[in-house]
Amino acid sequence: MNRRSTSAGCSSGCWASLRQNSANRPEEGTGLKPKLKLKLKLKHKVILAFLLCIVLPFLVVGWISAYVALHTIKEEVGSTTLQLVKQNHVTLDKTISAINDRTITLLDNHFFSNPAGYSFWTGIDTLNEIQQADNILESWSTGGTEYAIYMKNIERRDTPFDLSHKTKGFKYLDQVNSGLPDVMVKQMDVSGAGALRVIPSATGERTVSFMRSILNPRNYNEVIGLLVVHKVEVMLTRDMVSVELPAAAGAFLFNDNGELLMSTGSGSISAAEIGKNTEPDAAYGYTFAQEGGEEWLYAYSDSSRFHTRLLYKIPLASITGKQVWFQKLLVLISFVFLAFVLMFVLYLVRLVVKPVVKLVSVMKIYEPGIKLPLSEEPLRHDEFGILQGSFVKMTRRLDHSIEENYGMKLKQKEYELLMLQSQITPHYLYNTLDSIYWYALDSGNGEVGEMVRDLSMLLRIGLSRGRTMITAGEELEHAQAYTRLQTKRYPGTFEVCWQIDDTLRDYETPKVIIQPLIENAILHGVRGMDGEGEIRVSAVQAEGTLRFIVEDNGHLPVDLEELAAILREEHSARGYGIRNVHQRIQLHYGEAYGLTYERTGVGWTRAIITLPLRRTKTEPAGN
Questions:
Q1: How many CB atoms lie within 10 A of CB 77?
Q2: The whole model's pTM is what?
Q3: Rounded to an integer, what distance in angstroms lies between the CA atom of residue 414 and that of residue 409?
Q4: How do 169-173 and 146-152 pair as beta strands?
Q5: How far apart are CA 237 and CA 234, in angstroms?
Q6: Segment 190-210, tens digit of pLDDT
Q7: Which among 5, 26, 298, 502 has most CB atoms closer than 10 A?
Q8: Which phi and psi (to 5°) does residue 139 adopt?
Q9: Cα–Cα distance, 262 to 240 (Å, whole number)
């Protein structure tokens, strides 16, 4: 009773002193000074966590999603518009191709396949022939177009009246092509190729004309006239207006000279825009650009046959306006949602932080062994009340455990004292065996003295002052002492050969792991071989490991599968010695090490102990 009372009284004061000391000194074992920590209240931590873990990721993901969605929408709009431009251009090409084919047919029928026709067109000089030529050209005029042939007056024909005022039908040209626009004069220099050109009319309006030079069927190197199809824009406009464009958008058709042939829609475009927002060498494509404070889509397609380019200029907002509005609505809803979440978090912080702060204040003043000064206020009925009640119970159990722990430490000291006393008995045993050894030598019985010496070594190394790990040299001495005793017990039965690498004697090994293998080799191998038995014990270094090898040429066959099953603990009633060796090694070093068996030669069995190479500072066992 007195001892328990003293321990309980000391436990509170000692523990409080230990707690105070440990709170005033830095962490041991780290070698580092305590780091300066940012002290934040729990409320601020929760709000900061909310901002970093919810608001910030939400904004980042929202911004990335909006950017990706807008970029995707723009690309889809650009790709779709480009397909529309291509389809529209194909339609325009068909119309131009039809005009081109008609001009080729006209020239073939009236010039190249018909010699009389050639004579007719180069020899017109009467009113009737002029009217006949005009009627032929008018019959070829379809869809609002007007066909005209401008012939060089090769044969110097005189017409009954001046034809210079005519804008359609047949007309002679003088030697300097007076009255003919420059663009038509230039086209006469292109041998046979058709092209779309813009020609100013007599009224000052611009008209799109398809023209091709007329070659002399008797000499293809000579141009004798020009075939022109006026008002081609009537047919092209029908194809272009078939595509409905948004407000402020425009579709523009250019020829191979970069000249604007025609346009539809209310939009306009400048040469600077074309050069900046289109690729002149690309067959098709689309780009986005800012012009006049607004983003525009430029989609274009080229025709390799007639060297035309169709360009659409569309304000992006007219296409993506609803999608952008919907995205802005989603962003607004998201911010409203975040505001509600923030309000809820603040409410939750207020609901949670107050009881947590109260619990923390109680925990701060608590010291093991000292009773807590708790108020009589009833606990809350929620989780925090349960937590506070559990903490109070825990402190009481901890105080009780401190008292018990102090008593157990006293008992442990008593046990250690008894252990020190018990070590005196082996000491007396070694001294007695040593006295017997010297007595045997003095009596002239050296063989008995050697046996007593070996037995003393077995006991001394086997006990090793309670150590579990000894040096390889000590383990080999233990095994050699055992074999000497066994050779005296079974004289003339077997021989033991030792092959020891002396550099391995200072390495670490569990104690008494070779002796059980030698014992098995004797009992189950060479004991009954009448002098023919042989045991080989080796200590070698291989592949970065320490290996003890015990081999015997025992006459009895060995079942390696049964030995493996014993090591795996599948046969619990047999092989206790080798299983104990294998388990102790693996407990110390892991499953990569242990005991294995194999056959070598004819009738030889080898047991191999594999250990890691580790040097030990353990002193050899003494008295």
A1: 19
A2: 0.48
A3: 9
A4: parallel
A5: 5
A6: 666 788 888 876 667 788 989
A7: 298
A8: -70, -25
A9: 9
